[in-house]
Specification:
With 393 residues, the protein is of the alpha+beta class. The protein has helices spanning 16-28, 37-49, 61-68, 72-84, 99-102, 121-126, 190-194, 220-236, 245-251, 253-257, 262-272, 281-309, 316-332, 339-348, 353-362, 364-371, 373-392; strands at 12-13, 56-58, 88-92, 95-98, 110-111, 114-119, 130-132, 139-141, 170-173, 181-185. The protein has four domains: 2-141, Arc Repressor Mutant, subunit A (Orthogonal Bundle), CATH 1.10.10; 168-197, no CATH class; 206-330, no CATH class; 339-392, no CATH class. 50% of the residues lie in helices and 9% in strands. The longest helix has 29 residues, at 281-309.
Length: 393
Amino acid sequence: MHAQSVEHTTSRRSGPRRWLRAVAWLIAAGLHGRANATTLRVAEDLAARMDYDLGHVRYCLDDTVARTSISKASVKRHVAYLRELGALAWVVHGTRANIRRTLGLGGYAATATVYAAVIPPVYDHALGHTIIGTGYEARIVIDQRGQTPKPVDNPPVDNSGSETHEPPSRTWVKEESQVKVVGGFNNTPRKRASRRTARLPHQKTSNNSQGQDGHARRSPLQVAREIRETQLVRAMVNWTQGERIRRLAFVLRPFFDRGLTAPEIAAELHGLCLRGRPKQPANFIHARLAQQAARDAELAAEQAAQEAAVAPQDNAAWQALAEQQAALADLFAAPARTDDDRRHARLYAWDHWEEIADHYDEDPDDALDLYGTKLCSWAVGKAARAQEAYDRV
């Protein structure tokens, strides 16, 4: 709680647009076990009301509930998740102090809670940002060196002598790892010519190709979705950040076909390259996946041959292992719930309303079966009132 205020937070302040992108990344990366799409909806509502420069926003719990149609208790929980992620920090704690008296006005109005949009260091570290300062006043340094073309230092040409220079001739140019250029100049720069061979094998410029790359036809919506996932992958895997998005999305298609999400693909890529930094990330990923596919095919063929030779059920060791696992499963299997269990829980659980409320949040049906509707309603209401009292402090 102490580290969730602007005076003590390790996160840097931000405007609403960059903050919302960072929140989406933090949730997609799974940095909080309970943050989900509802957390992002609450963040979007806060971002829509934030001050554009400072990123400050009033809590306005009742108004947020009315706009988002999310229950009051859920809004409180998901705002707490944002604070625990390091994405929100208190500017002002809401109290019962009369703010109208402070402003010299009549009447009464409690002091509202004000939050600040902040971005935690884990996000900047994953995206390779350079940070100056610490905490709330930290800032990003953007290195723009090398983005403008450097002047070319061409040596002077001496035309005073009798020897003259012939103009460049139109001829065939063929260099290793380059395509054959018809009608090009013989002084074509290697760097420009090499761009023609930057594509991976069988990569098409159209998204509607089928058969050549070994994958099913992609719809435009599917391609757009994969590009968005690839942007997250490139942000989480530093050695891929020099690769173009569409080229990287093409080589990641085997992962998308397996239904993997961006954090799961990032974990796979970290396993492919444990050290070093490939100069051509897309070619490196393509080659490693091809090696894995060939190795998996060999292992599958060997396993099929072994299974055809000896069935597992005929192996005495396999049968003993299966019996041992069955015995362990029976030993550790949870006994069926009885009426005595329910009666005992309902008699002795009144003093443990926090456990009942947590149980109801995690599994409502199981909590209702064990404690009953009356006890669950009482515990959840008590938890909500305790949270309201805590937020006012």
